[in-house]
């Protein structure tokens, strides 16, 4: 299994933003077992400490943390500079923070919608601007970003969240187009529903993806310098069909 | 189409039937995942109808169920906290599974001090049921190797428990069926190994006397367990295979081998398991080992977890599920009790697929309500046939009581309140340590006045 200690020549230096999210945590466990150096950022100090202890125990060669609210874009440059300094460099930046938000509330109140867009779109754009320029200067690095299959087409059940992820996916397309030639890889990750504790014992949860296998796919896609990852892979043909349903039919569907 | 945004943050409460491993009984309950140590009791502040911490749901009956209540699912609370390779002490959150512990520990040259026949149980569940393994005669129960843990109570208090700190809660929680509070983390003493392999020997036996001889000869062997054919009568009565093994002392690769995973793909129709098919299976199993003795150097996975390879093997029993019956009868009556119960089972014509026989040792458990005690233990499982299974279970439970034995709550869905209270006369003393918010369908069932 992927949690076996593996020997890599020099430990990779990885910056993780939103490190207490379920998928990020599972991904970091694989990196930790490979002996990576990790800098973890999250809002909640207690949760961050629990994740950091876990990764250290699993074999990370170095773990440092910072408690920060990533909605505060003014702080991004100093936070990122501090992280890169602590890691003495950076091979991978993994952006995993985001909120689902309350769609119903966002339909009534623009401020709620704006908050979702800020967290899921504006904040990553701010982070990625700094990180992309950092990597371009060195002609190296990977920017791996959690978007969502929900960004592939707006649906009535979550179009505010979906549009924030659509914007993020489009931003990543453009960024990749700009900096791929500079030796920097941009990976857009589009996960589907993921199996977690709450679905334990539920028969239908077997259709959900296992968070550890999602994490393995992400690590492997980063290692292979992929551009776009649908995970599990079945979402690629499903979303191809969904994107191509004619609008006059799509608008009548309950999705 | 499932909602592609339904990630773990999306919903926090799901109303669902939660199945125990026996798939009987099934009750509706609300599932509340505990992701972080601080989630309890904050998450449950305004709950009604009680709550019960549960892990992987590998208990067979209703100790992991709470009808119309709240199940606090701990499996996402699975972080490691500290590991000391000098002492082998591993501190981890209670939702970490034994499989996850092994994935971490084996490549580092360590192994579980005690393991049951499945690795898909949580650390918290292993403590709550004070599980035992093939090395009970040398190592005692799981709880003996838990040096310390934290128990969080619904009143918000955090109790550090060890043989010297809050010793009464330490004793009540080990084997306490999850009823004393939520275990957030625990420290477990792992033991060093130099190889993934087990020096294995399988020996055929005929009858309980031969089984007892083999048990005596194997006193210094770390792991022993026997499979027994309960379908055969006459000359073949109580024939079986005695299996023994030690961790190989020859230095070897500790890295995991690739694991093929096989998931039992469908629910077997009710008629698939009947006296004839089970008898055929048992005969085949007995003769799978052609010679009286067989030796092998075996990976620990098939030695300890032969059934884990078939991930949902409980489906083999169809929709109605299965009932387990596991007793321990103290040495005084162990032999006559076991023979009498095996005869009763054979007479009933109800087929038990997996009958496992083992001698428990005399290493005491720290747990107040712990199941194992010195003597013979037998575990049987039966597909449920309502009109026949339950009367048989009542007869077997009454026989167990007559022989001075007791049943294992983790594998029970049928014992009466009277039987439970006779098996565990210390239950009233234990009840004083129960968390007032926490209860289970098992507890409700066996503490009623009968």
UniProtKB/TrEMBL annotation, chain A:
Coiled coil: none
Any one of the GO CC terms: membrane
MF terms in GO: oxidoreductase activity
Key words, A-Z: Oxidoreductase
Keyword NAD annotated: no
Pfam families associated with the record: adh_short (PF00106)
Domain of life from the UniProt record: Bacteria
ATP-binding among keywords: no
PANTHER family found in the cross-reference section: DEHYDROGENASE/REDUCTASE SDR FAMILY MEMBER 7B, DEHYDROGENASE_REDUCTASE SDR FAMILY MEMBER 7B
Assigned protein family: Belongs to the short-chain dehydrogenases/reductases (SDR) family.
Name used for this protein in its record: Short-subunit dehydrogenase
Species whose genome carries this gene: Tunturiibacter empetritectus
Taxonomic lineage from the root: Bacteria, Pseudomonadati, Acidobacteriota, Terriglobia, Terriglobales
């Amino acid at each position: 299994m992927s949690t076996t200690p593996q020997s890599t020549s020099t430990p990779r230096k990885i910056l993780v933003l939103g490190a207490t999210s379920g998928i990020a945590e599972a991904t970091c466990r694989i990196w930790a077992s490979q002996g990576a150096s990790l800098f973890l950022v999250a809002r909640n100090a207690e949760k961050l400490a629990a994740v950091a202890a876990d990764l250290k125990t699993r074999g990370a060669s170095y773990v440092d943390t910072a408690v920060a609210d990533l909605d505060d874009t003014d702080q991004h440059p100093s936070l990122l500079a501090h992280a890169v300094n602590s890691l003495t460099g950076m091979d991978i930046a993994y952006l995993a923070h985001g909120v689902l938000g309350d769609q119903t509330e966002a339909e009534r109140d623009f401020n709620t919608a704006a908050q979702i867009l800020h967290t899921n779109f504006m904040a990553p754009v701010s982070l990625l601007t700094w990180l992309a320029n950092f990597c371009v200067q060195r002609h190296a690095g990977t920017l791996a970003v959690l978007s969502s299959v929900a960004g592939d087409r707006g649906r009535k059940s979550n179009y505010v969240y979906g549009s924030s992820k659509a914007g993020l996916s489009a931003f990543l397309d453009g960024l990749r187009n700009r900096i791929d030639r500079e030796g920097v890889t941009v990976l857009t990750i589009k996960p589907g529903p993921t199996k977690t504790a709450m679905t334990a014992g539920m028969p239908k949860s077997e259709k959900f993806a296992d968070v550890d296998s999602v994490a393995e796919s992400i690590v492997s896609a980063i290692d292979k310098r992929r551009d776009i990852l649908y995970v599990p892979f079945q979402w690629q043909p499903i979303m191809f069909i969904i994107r191509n349903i004619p609008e006059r039919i799509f608008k009548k569907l309950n999705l | 189409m499932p909602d592609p945004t339904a990630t773990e943050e999306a919903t926090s409460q799901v109303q669902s039937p939660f199945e125990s491993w026996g798939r009987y009984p099934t009750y509706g309950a609300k599932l509340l995942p505990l992701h972080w140590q601080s989630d309890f009791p904050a998450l449950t502040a305004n709950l009604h109808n009680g709550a019960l911490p549960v892990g992987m749901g590998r208990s067979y009956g209703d100790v992991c169920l709470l009808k119309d209540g709240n199940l606090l699912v701990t499996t996402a609370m699975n972080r490691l906290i500290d590991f000391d390779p000098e002492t082998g002490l591993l501190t981890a959150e209670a939702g970490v599974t034994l499989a996850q512990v092994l994935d971490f520990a084996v490549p580092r040259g360590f192994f579980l001090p005690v393991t049951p026949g499945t690795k898909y149980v949580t650390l918290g569940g292993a403590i709550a049921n004070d599980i035992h393994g093939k090395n009970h005669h040398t190592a005692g129960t799981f709880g003996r190797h838990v040096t310390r843990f934290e128990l969080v109570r619904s009143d918000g208090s955090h109790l550090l428990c060890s043989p010297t700190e809050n010793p009464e809660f330490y004793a009540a929680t080990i084997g306490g069926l999850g009823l004393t509070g939520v275990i957030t983390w625990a420290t477990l003493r792992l033991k060093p190994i130099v190889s993934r392999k087990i020096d294995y020997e399988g020996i055929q036996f005929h009858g309980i006397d031969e089984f007892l001889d083999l048990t005596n000869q194997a006193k210094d062997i770390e792991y022993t367990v026997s499979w027994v054919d309960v379908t055969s009568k006459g000359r073949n009565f109580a024939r079986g295979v005695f299996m023994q093994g030690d961790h190989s002392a020859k230095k070897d690769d500790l890295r995991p081998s690739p694991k093929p995973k096989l998931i039992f793909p469908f629910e077997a129709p009710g008629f698939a398991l009947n006296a004839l098919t089970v008898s055929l299976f048992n005969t085949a199993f007995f003769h799978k080992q052609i010679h009286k003795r067989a030796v092998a150097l075996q990976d620990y996975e098939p030695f300890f977890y032969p059934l884990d390879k078939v991930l949902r093997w409980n489906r083999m029993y169809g929709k109605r599920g299965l009932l387990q019956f596991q007793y321990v009868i103290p040495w005084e009556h162990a032999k006559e009790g076991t023979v009498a119960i095996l005869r009763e089972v054979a007479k009933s014509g109800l087929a038990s697929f997996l009958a496992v026989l083992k001698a428990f040792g005399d290493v005491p458990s720290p747990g107040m309500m712990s199941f194992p005690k010195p003597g013979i233990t037998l575990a049987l499982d039966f597909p449920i046939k309502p009109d026949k299974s339950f009367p048989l279970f009542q007869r077997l439970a009454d026989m167990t009581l007559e022989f001075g034995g007791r049943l294992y709550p983790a594998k029970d869905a049928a014992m009466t309140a009277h039987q439970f209270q006779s098996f565990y006369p210390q239950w009233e003393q234990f009840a004083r340590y129960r968390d007032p918010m926490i209860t289970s369908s098992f507890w409700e069932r066996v503490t009623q006045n009968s």
